[in-house]
Amino acid sequence: MKLAMGLRVANSLSLTPQLQQAIRLLQLSSLELEQEIQIQLDSNPLLEKIEEQNSVESLNNLQEQERESKDLTNELNADHLPDELPVDTEWDDVYTHQPTSLGAAEFEEREDNRQGHQSLQAHLIEQVNLLHFSLVDKLIAHCIIDSLDAKGFLDCEIQEITQSVQHLLESMDYEEEVEDDEVLVVLKHIQRLDPVGVGARNLAECLMVQVQTLPENIPCRKDALVLLQNYELLISNELPKLIKQTGLNTEQLKLAISLLKTLKAHPGQEFEDKESDYQIPDVVVLKKNEHWLVQLNPDVMPKLRVNSFYANMIKRADQSDDNQYLRNQMLEAKNFIKSIDERHKTLLKVATCIVEHQRAFFEQGPEAMRPLVLRDIAEEVELHESTVSRVTTNKYMLTPRGLFELKYFFSSHVGTSTGGEASSTAIRAKIKKMIAEENTRKPLSDNAIAVMLNAEGIDVARRTVAKYRESLHIPSSSERKVLI
Question: Where is each RNA polymerase sigma factor 54 core-binding domain found (predicted)?
Fold first, then answer.
């Protein structure tokens, strides 16, 4: 084997840092993009954000500040000081007159009545502290309250609470023995606190406690208690067996079920800290003069530029470290601004193409959704499928029909009897509409829905209908059946 050295020319693909940055920015959501921009603003002195201010007003304000500064300097350099020097504020700007009978205060001070969120555990502990419990009973109550889940149900066994209380007593050098019956007694007290039914071990016990606390003069109160004693048949919707087992007629059963529907199935749910998760749209679609307009949301479009002050400090022939640092930072700032601009252009191009394909959806609704895949958009906008996938991930479009993720407009297709294609999203919408209009006494089976869709020219099998129905979280026909 002979070793030798030589030159060879070959082509290869490589991702430059600028291209890597552009790809990474392309898949960021609006919130992630805002965070990335803030990181760049904090780390790069040559990158700055354009504030929303009129340039003429900004120039006038700057000239006025310079003029006031010169006047103040001249007065301070004078031979004698005036009685009053110019200041930024006046006495009346800080201290306002007290309101009299002839006038009211310009600003009325109001007490902040906003209340912080109180958890279910804190709400129950406040009530327990008002009860005449012994030290051991309070300890048991605290252990029970700590074992409640978000719905207000007891999330452990009675024996576990007994063991926990016993362990705490031993750590405090108490020699008292705790039994399961004592825990059950305290649990009964907690279940009748506000909200009633909290601490129940299942839904039937929760409803049972709430019915027992109702006034006895309610007509169907006793029937509801009898119904809850056979809750297994009620949950399985076996009404004929339930009528035979309880001895209630159809009218009594109907009134008892109506009473149970007025109760709280999850007592602790109202204490959940419900923070709304708002999605900021990246694209806004509007209809104007019978045409659909697509535009980027100006609220999420950052306006960036290179800082002119630092840019003017760069000297062309200077090779010092400071000058080289400014050059590198200016190059990074320009590349970042260019990547942001390319991201917005690509997003607008893809969103416009989606709206053109799904125009029937905006006009008629989900039932008119057309089948669409990433490849169709990629070929039309001359981009790779992976680029279209990145652009449509975690991006949202605000339309007259609501807020949708861009991925929502892509769906698989099902063949039709005429040789065409139907979108799976449109088929789901049709199934949902059919079930909403069905007779609850005779709900449509999956096979019946498949036959109805075939009559409309959509070739789907029964198992496909079942898959689409389950994706919509719609129960089966036997579970949807209502006899009373």
Answer: 113-310
